[in-house]
Design goal:
The complex is a heterodimer of chains A (210) and B (232). Chain A is an all-alpha fold and 210 residues long. Chain A has one domain. Chain A is 78% helix and 0% strand. In chain A, helix 1 packs antiparallel against helix 2 and helix 2 runs parallel beside helix 4. The longest helix of chain A has 46 residues. Chain B contains 8 helices and 9 strands. A 9-stranded mixed sheet of chain B has the order 4-1-2-9-8-3-7-6-5. By secondary structure, chain B is α/β, with parallel strands linked by helices. Chain B is 31% helix and 26% strand. In chain B, strand 8 and strand 9 form a beta hairpin. The longest helix of chain B has 14 residues. Chain B has 2 domains: 134 residues, 3-Layer(aba) Sandwich (Rossmann fold), CATH 3.40.50; 57 residues, no CATH class. The chains are: A mainly alpha (210), B alpha/beta (232). At the A-B interface, helix 5 and helix 6 of A face strand 5 of B.
Chain lengths: 210, 232
């Protein structure tokens, strides 16, 4: 998929549709199977498995207490798969370009810049977690709450520090809000079925409220 | 501990890295620009990355340590003292080595990255390893910190120490030089013979070579001595 607008549209609309109804979740899953590289497009399979494990535990509790855990698990699995796809498919600068094209060079630029910085921080955080696992293995540190909490606190503190430094740098360069950008998008024909399928998924979710 | 690379290839899209050679006992320096693959070689040696082709064999089962560039990745203590204890070490000698005496009860997140790096290196170097892999050990250190680390790393090692760095200001004495050139790990050989073959030596060494000096090793001290001999 080439067009950044379509990628963001799909990554925004399909999870909402999947969460709202079972029919939407089926449509979302079909879309994921048909128009993404599936498991090959997932950049961090371990993180996805971690989220799915948490979902399974939550769904089990829901099923045992109030019922409806299995449909919940299915809907949320589709949401996680779509999120994992977008995380792998996202191109640097794409969020800023789409935001500017939709909302203009003032609010759109600010929102897009914030989104780009957040996405970059997420990438760095995932890389940090990978490195931490290696470092802990080398050090022979057992993974329990006593060691995990100070390590994560330090990591969070470092992230906040980096964000502060980045904000200072932007201010130092004279950034007060807005900016100029002329985004150009390519919409190849092969993206057309994927775009139509997003619309179809919305229609299906509204028409079949399961 | 000996680590041997036999026809090793790592493929990451358009980027490839090939490696052949043996890292024996002693100190090795692996240099190359940022992004050339030094960290990948370090991860391969530590067994944390599997090559796409070829084989890596490690002779011996002694303790192994890979020190990563960013010290916070290794940190597991809430305070400086707890962090030192997490390495199984007594606090005072490490605090003295890191230049942090009296800071043992300080919270780790209040330390600067430079302090964290000094503390981390002091913890790593206080223990004995059969294979010690130091990935960018000079990151976040100031000039005096870099010189102190080079002096510390110049002491004879017990096992195999491999230093991966693109740093230029201060380097330790080593036994063998390696370089990553256009995606290939090249063994330049024992340090004296390797110096003239080194394509990107630090400025102080290049300047001495241009003046006709023949340093015995690559540390600033060795280069100074060689210049004195040349000026004679």
């Amino acid at each position: 998929m080439q067009d950044g607008r379509l990628k963001i549209l799909s990554a925004t609309v399909l999870p909402v549709v999947a969460f709202l109804s079972l029919a939407g979740a089926v449509a979302g899953l079909a879309w994921w199977l048909l128009f993404t590289p599936r498991h090959r497009g997932i950049r961090n399979p371990r993180a996805v498995l971690f989220f799915l494990a948490i979902l399974c535990a939550t769904a089990a509790v829901v099923q045992l207490t109030a019922g409806g855990g299995i449909p919940y698990l299915f809907r949320m699995t589709v949401v996680v798969l779509l999120a994992a796809w977008y995380h792998g498919a996202r191109r640097s600068g794409e969020l800023l370009e789409v935001s500017v094209s939709l909302l203009g060079t003032r609010k759109g630029f600010d929102l897009g810049l914030a989104a780009e910085m957040a996405a970059r921080s997420l990438d760095l955080l995932l890389r940090d977690l990978e490195m931490m696992q290696i470092a802990w293995q080398m050090k022979g540190t057992p993974r329990h709450l006593k060691t995990l909490s100070p390590a994560l606190a330090l990591l969070l503190h470092t992230q906040l520090q980096q964000s502060g430094e980045q904000a200072s740098l932007l201010a130092l360069r004279g950034y007060t809000g807005g900016g100029s950008l002329c985004p150009a998008f390519a919409f190849p024909r092969r993206d057309l079925p994927a775009a139509c399928s997003v619309v179809l998924a919305v229609v299906l979710a509204v028409a079949v409220p399961l | 501990m000996r680590v041997s690379f036999q026809g090793v290839e790592v493929l990451r899209g358009d980027w490839t890295l090939t490696a052949d050679g043996v890292f024996g006992e002693g100190r090795h320096l692996v240099t190359g620009p940022v992004g050339s693959g030094k960290s990948t070689v370090a991860l391969l040696m530590a067994g944390m990355v599997t090559p796409d082709r070829g084989r890596i064999t490690r002779g011996g089962e002694g303790p192994l340590m890979l020190s990563l560039p960013f010290p916070e990745h290794h940190s597991t203590g809430a305070t400086v003292r707890e962090e030192i204890a997490s390495w199984g070490l007594a606090a005072d000698p490490v605090l003295a080595e890191a230049g942090m005496l009296g800071r043992g009860d300080g919270e780790l997140h209040r330390c600067s990255r430079g302090e964290l790096k000094r503390l981390h290196m002091a913890c790593v170097l206080a223990r004995r390893w059969d294979l010690l892999l130091l990935d960018e050990p000079y990151t976040a250190l100031d000039c005096p910190g870099r010189e102190a680390l080079s002096a510390r790393l110049s002491a004879p090692p017990a096992g195999t120490t491999v230093i991966f760095t693109h740093a230029r200001e201060s380097l330790p004495r080593v036994d063998r030089l390696w370089e990553i050139r256009e995606g290939r790990l090249v063994d330049l050989g024992p340090v004296r013979e390797a110096i003239p073959l080194w394509s990107s030596p630090p400025a102080y060494l290049r300047s001495a070579l241009d003046q006709g000096a023949v340093p015995k090793n690559i540390s600033v001290q060795d280069v100074r001595e060689a210049l004195c001999r040349t000026a004679g």
